[in-house]
């Protein structure tokens, strides 16, 4: 896995950006091994994001040829819309996230952003266009400032503070012994799950990507913190194309479209109300989760 403890100051900003994206993705998807070698096509142009439309066109994918994982998934997310991917564990939600990032190439079909096939553009430009908010943000052993500015290392103090305010973590940072210069991470101040996630949100806000990939937190945050974080994520999604990988359903009700995956195939799609009215898989998942939530703890 990517080493995250080595000093990073000497690294160039482009490298840092890619690295951040990879660290976030690695964290997000629990990638323990190196993904397959993906190289840019010689002379590949940069991705040009004009609006942020994301299309999966009859996507087939297998990690191992003997075991197909995605079996013809087609999804179109218009620029500025929010798509929620739901489905049982192992149905292929995170795999779609990995393909969007081109950690792997599709076996058949295509993934396109604003009409450009991901295989035809540079990976640097692709990674620069997508912001990832993982459920567990990786903190470096450095200052709070550094950890937020990691989203854009040339950011000024005012810009970092602006992002921290928008992520509603500025006041907390100001209450720390050395404010933005307080050391955090394994060897510094340990932040709570919610605080770490806010640092991650601030980092992504600073990067200002047109496309967001959100991994809904499954980690235990208290209800109020979780609600606050959801509000921040919702605000961050305004005006951007958002793909939300939802492990629970409580946060998907507002999505423009919900896609239900089962064993690598889309089995239902629609808005929350439509899917409830259809009384199919989504409605059953919803009923099951609602029952779990209302169960008193044993
Ligand atoms: P969850 O909700 O549990 O996170 P998911 O819907 O995100 O599940 P994926 O992580 O996309 O599911 O996994 C889909 C299938 O692909 C699973 O059967 C999984 O075992 C398999 N898989 C995932 N990563 C790899 C890998 N690196 N190599 C081989 N198979 C993999």
Automatic annotation (TrEMBL):
Residues 54-288 form the ABC transporter domain. It is found in: Cell membrane. This is ATP-binding cassette, subfamily B. It comes from Gemmobacter megaterium. The lineage of its organism: Bacteria, Pseudomonadati, Pseudomonadota, Alphaproteobacteria, Rhodobacterales.
């Amino acid at each position: 896995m990517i080493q995250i403890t080595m000093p990073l100051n000497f690294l160039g900003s482009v490298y840092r950006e890619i690295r951040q994206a990879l660290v976030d993705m690695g964290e997000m998807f629990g990638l323990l091994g190196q993904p397959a070698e993906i190289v840019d096509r010689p002379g590949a142009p940069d991705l040009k994001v004009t609006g942020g439309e994301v299309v999966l066109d009859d996507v087939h994918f297998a990690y191992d040829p003997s075991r197909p994982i995605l079996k013809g998934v087609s999804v179109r997310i218009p620029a500025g819309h929010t798509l929620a991917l739901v489905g049982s564990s192992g149905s292929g939600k995170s795999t779609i996230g990995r393909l969007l990032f081109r950690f792997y190439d599709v076996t058949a079909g295509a993934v396109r952003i604003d009409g450009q096939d991901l295989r035809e553009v540079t990976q640097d430009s692709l990674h620069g266009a997508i912001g990832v908010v993982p459920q567990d943000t990786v903190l470096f052993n450095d200052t709070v400032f550094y950890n937020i500015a990691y989203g854009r290392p040339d950011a000024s103090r005012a810009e970092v503070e602006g992002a921290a305010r928008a992520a509603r973590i500025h006041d907390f940072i100001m209450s720390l012994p050395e404010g933005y210069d307080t050391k955090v991470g394994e060897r510094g101040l340990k932040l709570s799950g919610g605080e770490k996630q806010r640092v991650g949100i601030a980092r992504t806000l600073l990067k200002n990507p047109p496309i967001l990939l959100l991994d809904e937190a499954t980690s235990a945050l208290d209800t109020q913190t979780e609600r606050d974080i959801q509000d921040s994520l919702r605000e961050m999604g305004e005006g951007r194309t958002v793909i939300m990988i939802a492990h629970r359903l409580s946060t998907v009700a507002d999505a423009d479209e919900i896609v239900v995956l089962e064993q690598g195939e889309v089995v239902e799609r629609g808005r929350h109300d439509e899917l409830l009215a259809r009384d199919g898989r989504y409605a059953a998942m919803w009923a099951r989760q609602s029952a779990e939530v209302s169960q008193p703890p044993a």
